[in-house]
Amino acid sequence: MTELLQQLINGLALGSILALIALGYTMVYGILRFINFAHGDLFMLGAFAGFYISPAVAAVLPGPSLGSGLVVLGLAMLICAVLGVVIERVAYRPLRRRPKLAVLITAIGISLFLENTGQLVFGATPKKFPEIIPVYPVLKFGGLSITSSQLIVLGVTLLLLVALRHIVLKTRMGMAMRALAFNPEAAALMGINTDWIVSFTFGLGSALAAAAGILFAIVYPSIDPLMGILPGLKAFVAAVLGGIGNLPGAALGGILIGVTETLVAGYLSSTYRDAIAFGILILILLVKPSGLLGKKEIEKV
Amino acid sequence: MNIRHAKTFLLGALALGFLVSVVASHFNSYWLFITYDIAINVILAVSLNLINGYTGQFSLGHAGFMAVGAYTAAVITNQFGDLNPFAAGAVFSGALLAGGALAAGAGLLVGIPTLRLRGDYLAIVTLGFGEIIRVIFQNMQGVGGARGLSVAHGWTDFFWAFGAAAAAVYVVAALVHSTYGRGFLAVRDDEVAASAMGINPVRYKVTAFVVGAFFAGVAGGLYAHSKQFITPGGFNFMQSVSIVVMVILGGMGNTVGVILAAVLLTLLPEFLRPIAEYRMILYSLLLVVLMLARPQGLFTFRKQGDAK
Amino acid sequence: MQNFLAPIQHARGISLIAAAATLFLTVFLTGCDKPASTPGAATGPIKVGEFASMTGSEATFGQSSHEGTLLAVDHLNAAGGVLGRKIELLMEDDQSQAGQPATVVRKLIARDGVVAVLGEVASSRSLEAAPICQQNQIPMISPSSTNPKVTAVGDYIFRVCFIDPFQGTVMANFARHTLHLKKVAVLTDMKSDYSLGLAKFFKEGFIADGGAIVAEQNYSSGDKDFSAQLTALKAVNPDGIFVPGYYTEVGLIALQARQLGLNVPLLGGDGWESSSLIPIGGVSLEGSYFSTHYSPEDTSAAVQDFVKAFRAKYNETPNAMAALGYDSAMILADAMKRAGTTDGAKVRDALAATKDFQGVTGKITMDADRNASKPAVILVIRDGQFKYVETVSP
To answer: Could you tell me which of B130, B149, B126, B114 has the C-alpha nearest to residue B65?
Structure first.
């Protein structure tokens, strides 16, 4: 029983990071109906941004402390938000009117570019991610262990989810995003500046990916340029699982994937771990393509 | 009249291939094997073109079919010791066909569940299938698993490679240019309209996958007997992406363009070896620039939407 | 524009174009190619080929290996070269991609005319290239491929590292007889040939010695989260865990094991050896053991000079792969000197006859299977450093 609970805790921590990445995927898909293949690499860039920023921050704010950690997090999110907006402007916007396939291929190209340039610039050897928040002793009770990092990950994820919900439901930007997702033409007719909203969405999604990257690096302090591939893929599956375009769905999907993977790896065999995410994906798309919380889309002739 | 001419040319190509392979030992082996790579890539590109270009089913898992063909053919030929040229030819052709057949089976398995999916979803699911196939081979200890499989006979030579390529091109082109074949394009252009016209999209989509997978399997078999060592990792997503790039570069649905793209993309890395460090970076930039500047491919000159 | 292309839109035209294009290319490429300078020519630089994974998923290993090899070539040339001629190292990147080693090694041999080939780190890529070197009678030395099958390809294929049966047994004996462990769990990297091989022989050796393997779990190179597997291992209460993987994952594994309350010693092989291991694993690695080629505390001139020179050139401490890359080049040079020529067959014979060659990775003697027979060193991690424990001779 202890083992099961421990596995659940592990899965929850992993799942919340996946949830953050999945949110970015789902937001972009909701508005643009396109899968940003390069999203996982923004996750990686967030981690590296944190790696390079933290010495500078530590010089000003002696750390590691919760405050300096938040500063690093905030700066990394900002950097990746800008990067996301730039990528959208340069590579995706010109293709807005073209068939979907063209953007998908471009996204694959951007993803490969980021990974390989990362290998060239950052170096291929994994680097140790510095301690940007203080590490408290592992909490142990009844044979279970929870690290302070895991708790912080859960906490920050919750905070970001709440913040996101506020932005989407309670602000004008959020309303514009929802309008655009619902009906792009009508939204434009209503005077909404589509380009602005799209850029904002990309920036927001990228910032979340960066946050996920930093949180990931805190729990697993080894970063390398190819670290975004697998989490990116799994987060995409999570987004589809929850219903792509649906925010709570993405969060739910992330948690579910994290927990399922952990349980299967622990109890069955981690041999097939890579394939599990895909297996779930295929199952979902065959059984309920709109995902757990999504709505069915009818194709009009 | 056209078909008869086409058959003559196919036989001519096979004869040519045979002649060249007889004098092959005089050629520099490095370049000779590059031509095998070219032929294999041509087969892969043309077969994917049938699925992606002509039928509009965006498949990102083509390397999976290649893997099935490679492993099947390798396992079959590994059962035999040294054989005289005629026996070797018989066994090899049998192995290649078996590889193709099993790959076609895999194509069926992938094609059927994906019938209802479109665009992005289809792409990701086919990617998933490709990865699942790879993971299966990685765990199949009987064929070496992650440690790889040695292929005892390096039977791929110019005749086989070139001949198979000519055959693949012929079959795919003949299929698409036939009256039946118009259905592929109809399904690509507008599936709902096509079915309203009495064309069964299911049949065409599945046929595209099966035929495409068959030739990918044959290409896999040729690959296995050229490199003489295969690992599951060699049939990963990156491999699928490189085939997709050939189809995109050549122009989806443009057979000649795709062939030229396959040749170009096999040769270009060889000439870029001095800057090999930057190769992947340039490759990925090429992809982006291509999509932004010339999404119809480098070798397509007709307006989009023209029937061929 | 349309009419121009109409004739080639038909099936026959396509076959014609395809036939013509490929044939033209073949003739152009192969016929016109300048023949490479004959290997074994007696003047000019000695061309030695190297293939490594400089980019791609295993770039970190290929780069380390290459750095060591390059340093060796620098040293050799600074000392006047071999047989009075400079060594020219021709390195090709195989991008960690299957299918590439065959192409690049063919290029090195057929086009560049190298007299010998150094490579590769990964056994699967060595296995792809070895038959080509064997067929062309070009000696090939792998710095760190551990799958026994590599040298079995033919008598021109050598290696300077341990093979799995030896290293696996070394650690099994150590675990059993020195640490007195009875129940051990094994955590293998199932994507790595090296890891699978080492695990297999460790298990066999440990069980043959009366020990018990209580649990086995797997992971993949590139994974960051091992909590699921470690939790499962913890449930069976092992005395120790054998982790025959690479430093890229071992650091995190140690970290997560301690976080879960799994405090038993970890054991491993030479894949652990890297200056990146301790920064990532930190205090979690204290009291863990691994086998490798040399100890950094080794005061012998050979090792110290090597480490110093490596630090001077690359600003980092060499790891096992860099050291093996260095030795692969040095042993080749030594064999050429003894053979008095760069002729493939003679160099092959000289390599096979290598006895007590003092490399930085130990005193190497080539055994009958062309594998390096040399002692292994077991290190422990204490106070954040690698410290020497004992030497095990074959």
So the answer is: B130
Per-residue pLDDT at A102: 80
Asked whether residue C8 carries a pLDDT value surpassing 50, the answer given is: no
pLDDT at residue C32, as a whole number: 47
Q: State how far residue B184 is from chain C, nearest Cα, in angstroms.
A: 16
What is the mean predicted confidence (pLDDT) over C123-145?
94
**Which residue range is the domain that position A216 belongs to?**
28-228
Measure CB to CB from residue B284 to each of A112, A279, A289 and give the nearest one.
Answer: A112
Going from N- to C-terminal start, the domains of chain B cover 2-236
Q: Is residue A55 part of a domain?
A: yes
- Name which of B68, B99, B84, B54 is nearest B207 in CA terms: B54
Q: Where in chain C is the domain with CATH 3.40.50.2300?
A: 46-162+300-374, 164-292
- Whether chain C has a CB inside 8 Å of the CB on B150: the answer is yes
Within 10 angstroms of residue B12's Cβ, the number of other Cβ atoms is 14
Q: Which of B105-119, C63-77, C286-300 has the highest mean pLDDT?
A: C63-77
Residue A8 lies in a domain: no
Predicted structure pTM score: 0.87
On average, the pLDDT of chain A sits at 86
> Is residue A37 within 8 Å of A204, Cβ to Cβ?
no
| Residue A195 resides in a domain | yes
- Please count the structural domains in chain A: 1
Separation CA B118–CA C307 (nearest Å): 58
In this predicted structure, the answer to whether residue A298 has a pLDDT above a threshold of 70 is no
Contacts of B308 in chain C (CB under 8 A): 9
Homologous superfamily of domain range C46-162+300-374: Response regulator (3.40.50.2300)
Residue in chain B closest to C136 (alpha carbons) equals B29
Architecture of the CATH domain C164-292: 3-Layer(aba) Sandwich (3.40)
Which of B67, B78, B164, B158 is CA-nearest to residue B107?
Answer: B67
Strand blocks (E) in chain C: 46-52, 87-93, 116-118, 140-142, 157-159, 183-189, 212-219, 240-242, 266-268, 289-292, 357-359, 362-366, 372-373, 376-382, 385-392
**Is A19 within a domain?**
no
pLDDT in tens, C24-47: 565 555 554 544 545 555 678 999
